[in-house]
Write a structure and sequence with these properties.
This protein is mainly alpha-helical. It folds into 2 domains: 164 residues, no CATH class; 120 residues, no CATH class. Helices cover 47% and strands 8% of the residues. The strands form 4 sheets. Strands 1-2-3 form a 3-stranded antiparallel sheet, with helices on one face. Helix 1 crosses helix 3, helix 5 packs parallel to helix 7 and helix 11 packs across helix 13. The longest helix is centred in the first third of the chain and has 31 residues. The radius of gyration is 25 Å and the shape is elongated.
Length: 366
């Protein structure tokens, strides 16, 4: 469908006709954009663009708001689970606005019935969707989390599977909570990162509650009670991970509940960036002096500095120029990254453009 140019001072019938055609063009563009977006998400192509998550790609590279990014992510996932609906969108048989209505209620078993319903007007479809929600007693704001695409697995680094069984009532609660979080924006698309951030947030709240209880028991004088800023508390490592390095081979392993696992080369390099080193019979040392590390975190306001990210949990300090290539431990050569962005940095060999006033990533293998 060709582009419609705006021409002022047209008769009412002409304006109405051009407006309807423009809306049709816009709807077609939206459905194509969702399909391309789904391609980026399904194949993890955002990583090739230097982004550690689809959310970061949507906000940094596409200029989406967090809520718009959440809408595209949900729709792309739902279309992937409804092949008949996706095919109708790809062929142009089903428009973007109708597709958004259908995916909110359709299942793989009912998608063909909903496609027949969509052949009528949009108003008729909206009414049928409302009836279906009411009949099922489903909150209109409740959504469904579908499995995300499997993560990229580095050589010799096998994933650890974690399975949780939910009752129907628990699943309904999980879905409703997730939908509300998506509307607020910024929910990690990777389910593993989402679980870890949720646990870290809960731990942070409990620590602050315990600190408040302790302070109330000591009855401090008025004006002397100070709370740790939430951002600063969240930037502290909630747990310590012990990694073992073989001095002869340089390989690193980590102990888990499922046994000892070997880390990939990229993960090993990431660990060497920001770690405390313990040697038997010797003094403990750190790869970055604690004073400098605190200075870098404070300078970066306890936020990940990867463009479009800004996370405040699981923060690590990264050497812009690695120490193997002559990089120093000065604050100018250090930047704050979250664990996901730091992992991507070492996997993709990303670098910072020195002429940029703020960190800007380039896909460049060292």
């Amino acid at each position: 469908m060709s582009e419609i140019s705006y021409i002022p001072d047209q008769p009412a019938a002409q304006v109405h006709s051009l407006l309807r055609r423009s809306l049709a063009v816009m709807d077609n563009a939206h459905q194509c954009a969702v399909l391309w977006f789904g391609e980026v998400m399904k194949r993890d192509l955002y990583r090739d663009m230097g982004c550690s998550s689809i959310n970061q790609y949507a906000t940094r590279e596409l200029g989406f708001s967090k809520s718009k990014a959440g809408d595209f992510i949900r729709l792309a996932r739902q279309l992937d689970n409804l092949p008949a609906v996706r095919e109708a969108v790809a062929s142009g048989e089903l428009g973007y606005t109708k597709a958004r209505e259908i995916v909110s209620v359709a299942t793989p078993e009912t998608q063909d019935i909903w496609l027949k319903t969509a052949k009528g007007t949009r108003k008729e479809l909206v009414n049928e969707v409302k009836k279906a929600r009411h009949a099922a007693k489903v909150d209109p704001g409740q959504g469904v989390l579908l499995p995300s695409s499997p993560p990229v697995v580095a050589p010799r680094e096998l994933p650890v599977r974690f399975v949780v069984d939910l009752s129907p009532e628990q699943e309904a609660r999980r879905s409703a909570l997730l939908e509300r979080l998506h509307k607020l924006g910024g929910v990690p698309a990777d389910r593993a990162e989402f679980m870890l951030e949720s646990m870290a947030a809960f731990l942070e709240i409990r620590e602050m509650e315990i600190a408040d209880e302790t302070n109330s028991m000591t009855k401090p004088h008025k004006g002397t009670h100070k709370r740790t800023p939430r951002g600063v508390l969240a930037s502290r490592p909630p747990v310590q991970i012990h990694v073992h390095e073989n001095a002869a081979t340089g390989r690193m392993t980590i102990q888990t509940d499922t046994g000892e696992r070997e880390l990939s080369h990229a993960e090993s390099e990431r660990m060497r960036c920001d770690a405390a080193i313990c040697k038997y019979g010797g003094r403990n040392t750190t790869t970055i002096p604690p004073r400098v590390r605190r200075e870098v975190l404070a300078r970066d306001q306890h936020r990940c500095q990867a463009p479009g990210c800004g996370r405040t949990r699981f923060l690590e300090v990264h050497h812009i120029v690695s120490r193997q290539h002559g990089g120093s431990n000065t604050a100018e050569n250090l930047m704050t990254l979250c664990a996901s962005c730091h992992r991507l940095w070492h996997e993709r060999g990303l670098k910072v453009r020195e002429s940029a006033p703020k960190y800007r990533w380039l896909n460049h293998r060292a």
